[in-house]
């Protein structure tokens, strides 16, 4: 049965969606942008800082759903500019250094609130 996941350790949803949903076995996160839980958007920060904030948000949501970085099966990274890939990838690797999940990284025409990166994940609940 579907359950919604919410944590105050990540920014609240900025639309008609949940931070994540689960069926008890898998957690599906919404895309996380570089928005602090206090509502500060880091859209002018370097892409490494934006990636770090998006991943911190992602991990907070996963933790609330009973998963961790080690449990992530797949991520999708949406980027406003694919030329930022190397800088994003360097930061991303710090979070998934051993046995990284499958990943797609794509350039999107525009991201919510003008962010440079948005990251979503699917994880298994252990």
From TrEMBL:
Protein name, UniProt field: Reactive intermediate/imine deaminase
Family classification: Belongs to the RutC family.
PROSITE patterns xref list: UPF0076 (PS01094)
NCBIfam families (alphabetical): Rid family detoxifying hydrolase
Assigned GO CC terms: cytosol
Molecular function GO terms recorded: deaminase activity
UniProt xrefs under InterPro entries: RidA, RidA_CS, RutC-like_sf, YjgF/YER057c/UK114
Domain of life: Archaea
């Amino acid at each position: 049965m579907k359950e919604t996941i919410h944590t105050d350790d990540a920014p609240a949803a900025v639309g008609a969606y949940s931070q994540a949903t689960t069926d008890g076995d898998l957690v599906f996160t919404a895309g996380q942008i570089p928005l602090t839980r206090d509502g500060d958007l880091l859209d002018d920060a370097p892409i490494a800082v934006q990636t770090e904030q998006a991943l911190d948000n992602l991990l907070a949501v996963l933790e609330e759903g009973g998963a961790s970085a080690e449990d992530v099966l797949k991520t999708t990274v949406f980027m406003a500019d694919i030329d930022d890939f190397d800088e994003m990838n360097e930061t991303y690797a710090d979070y998934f250094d051993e046995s990284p999940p499958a990943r797609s990284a794509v350039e999107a025409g525009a991201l919510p609130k003008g962010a440079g990166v948005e990251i979503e994940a699917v994880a298994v609940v252990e």
